[in-house]
Amino acid sequence: MILAYLFLALLLLLALAYALLPFFRQAQPFPESPRPEELRAELGVLKSLAQEAEGEERKRLLAQAVRLERQLAELGENPVPPPRRLSPVTLGAVALSLVALGVGLWAYTVPRLPGETIITSRNEARELGNLQRRAEQSGQAADWLAYADKAYELQDFERAVQGYLKVVELEPRNPRAVRRIGVLLFMSGRPQEGVQALELAVRAEPDVAEGWLFLGNAYFQLGRPAEAIVAWEGYLKAGGEARQQVLNLIQTAKEQQTATSRGRQVYLAHCAACHGAQAQGGTGPRLQGNPIRKVPEALREIILKGRGQMPAIPLSEADLQALLPYLGGL
């Protein structure tokens, strides 16, 4: 990698030298303009004609000759200047400025190390690379765990996953690696898989608050508020620091649990006869997993107005407000 950057720097210096080469050559003066000779020849003709002419014609020719003499005088006082040549000091200053600019851009804007991003600073990326090399050389689970923890700390989650998977490969029951894999699965939008890993982690280390927190989050995202409450209570029991935030989450889950219970009561009373007690389908279509359940306004219209063989069901607004979230969670 270093040789590649040195080669690139050499190419840039050669390109800079080639671009500045014309400024170091001997300046060549511009050729003299043919205009003065033309004017002198024209002036001689006018004077000859003026000597032979008389009256108004003579005056006109002499006046034209005077204008030509003025033009010749102006050309003599203001000759075309030769091209200016930049001094070595100026050229050196320009070259140093360009080099400094290139070095600055290379040092502070271009990532050069594995794992180096806007989030990950140069020193942190170097440390992460050292940990990775040490783990690769030793092949020990402890070294891979140190590498994965550092990547997780730097929010380089892709490398963190790779590290924790390597730990699990070497030590399948390592609770920290299993827990972090569960956390990362949840964060990547895979809560069902995350729950499986997190359940193993909290059974192995019930005193670690992190596992309980993310397990509760995953349960809640999957529409399992009762289990989420139990997990968050486990977080509080383990001494988690975000106590007030988790208490708020527990309260929200309890409210949702109450609403879900009320929604199921409405469903069993008005919908289960056709759609099945578990929304598995019957004389009416299956609702469990049906995409229509995620569109509350469409559900509202179908319930209140009916559609096809389904009759309109005159529910109160309170019953509708309880039923729609329940259907959405099926």
Explain what the structure shows.
Helix 2 packs antiparallel against helix 3 (55-77), helix 8 packs parallel to helix 10 (209-221) and helix 10 (209-221) runs antiparallel to helix 11 (225-237). This protein is mainly α. It contains 15 helices and no strands. Among the domains are: 122-257, Serine Threonine Protein Phosphatase 5, Tetratricopeptide repeat, CATH 1.25.40.10; 259-328, Cytochrome Bc1 Complex, Chain D, domain 2 (Orthogonal Bundle).
Number of helices: 15
Q: What series of H and E elements makes up the topology?
A: HHHHHHHHHHHHHHH
CATH superfamily of the domain at 122-257: Tetratricopeptide repeat domain
Helix content: over 70%
Biggest sheet details: none
CATH architecture of the domain at 122-257: Alpha Horseshoe
Number of strands: 0
Structural class: mainly alpha
Q: In percent, how much strand structure appears in the residues?
A: under 5%
| Alpha-carbon distance between the two ends | 54 Å
CATH topology of the domain at 122-257: Serine Threonine Protein Phosphatase 5, Tetratricopeptide repeat
Oligomer: single chain
By CATH reckoning, the class of the domain at 122-257 would read Mainly Alpha
Mean pLDDT: 79
- Radius of gyration over all CA atoms, rounded: 43 Å
* Poorly predicted segments: 109-116
Shape: elongated
